[in-house]
Amino acid sequence: xxxxxxxxxxxxxxxxxxxxxxxxxxxxxxxxxxxxxxxxxxxxxxxxxxxxxxxxxxxxxxxxxxxxxxxxxxxxxxxxxxxxxxxxxxxxxxxxxxxxxxxxxxxxxxxxxxxxxxxxxxxxxxxxxxxxxxxxxxxxxxxxxxxxxxxxxxxxxxxxxxxxxxxxxxxxxxxxxxxxxxx
Length: 183
Description:
2 domains, globular
């Protein structure tokens, strides 16, 4: 997640769409001070700000292969190499968050993500995935808005209709250039 496109956007509709989601995510499971928590795809560390009231910074960990240079949170242990993360932390984490990452990955990258999360989560750990809604009324409105703003993310009126009815929409993925189903 890039903060200019989500949390700190000047676009009022995006502010509404993204407002409060990280705070809500931090409350999805009971957290306590002794737990080890990983944000897989941590970006600039924004989720940590909402986790720290429940879990001390020294128990917060992050992984992001491309955005760690934007890290704004101080105190979490962060990795940009998945092999290092997995080798140091097999079966280590009580809670793993993976917020708004999966929709950007192709099949191979998704398999790697699932394998890595399975390796680092405790057997009885909690894993929380968050992805944006792109179907139904929410997806319809997003695609109408995007098409009115110059066809952002390939949006068209036809895609908006497909999204409304939950029909398959191919989606280009930035990190690896593959297409994923959406809907």
